[in-house]
């Protein structure tokens, strides 16, 4: 299965967006789950639009704007954990198996209060049978603390190829957490922003990355998370066609 993050740029009505994703060949999508970044208050409507287009919803990406407040002993911290718990409930309501979470950057170490909140996430995820995948960013110490401390098959890892290359390339993340892989974000590190480029347009060694993913035993989708940054001269159809061809090439490296 080949999937793509749904909010990659272009001003297109949401219903048409999913039709174009399906027409390009993709089997599934990842949904951005908030009204942030211009997504709009109707973001939950994307579930039905995506399914009407024949797409599988692989996971949702939880809001990231308040991610560093997990350990704060105040209303902001409590608001963040309530947001995550609601996202778990939303996944159960809409029959979406997995959600992706950004733990705080490492300059905001998770304290005991933060870990107690993580345990609330675990309890809710186990109760409702939802996977919660912790994504690698500038937060590897926090990811390590959570994954090494929490023994639950509902708490796992979301591997982001570009964040790995840009921030902690010396860490063997797939070697350590590949067996707990629940989601992936594949994008390259070229372009003026150094991230969210289409595969093979940057410096990532895709032979190595895809070999390690396959070696981990992960059987989920090959999933892209690009943006159209630097590709604005392409139409949405051209961008998606290009993205799908590159995703197929990555898929072949998994099974080659």
Please summarize what this structure is.
By secondary structure, the protein is an alpha/beta fold. Helices cover 41% and strands 15% of the residues.
**Overall pLDDT score:** 95
Anisotropy-based shape: globular
Radius of gyration: 17 Å
Category by helix and strand content: alpha/beta
The fold-level CATH name is TIM Barrel
Helical content band: 40-55%
What is the count of distinct domains? 1
Report the CATH superfamily: Divalent-metal-dependent TIM barrel enzymes
Order of helices and strands: EHEHEHEHEHEHHEHEH
- CATH architecture, please? Alpha-Beta Barrel
The strand line-up of the biggest sheet is 7-6-5-4-3-2-1-8
Measured by DSSP, the beta-strand proportion falls in 15-25%
What do these coordinates show?
There is one protein chain. The protein has 256 residues and is α/β, with parallel strands linked by helices. The protein has a single domain (2-255), classed as Alpha-Beta Barrel (TIM Barrel). The chain contains 9 helices and 8 strands.
Write the topology of this structure.
Blueprint: E1 2-5, H1 14-23, E2 28-32, H2 46-52, E3 56-61, H3 75-94, E4 98-102, H4 112-128, E5 131-135, H5 140-149, E6 155-160, H6 161-167, H7 173-177, E7 181-185, H8 206-215, E8 222-224, H9 236-255
Parallel strand pairs: 1-2, 1-8, 2-3, 3-4, 4-5, 5-6, 6-7
Helix pairs in contact: 3-4, 8-9
Keywords:
256 residues, alpha/beta, globular, TIM Barrel, 8 strands, 8-stranded parallel β-sheet
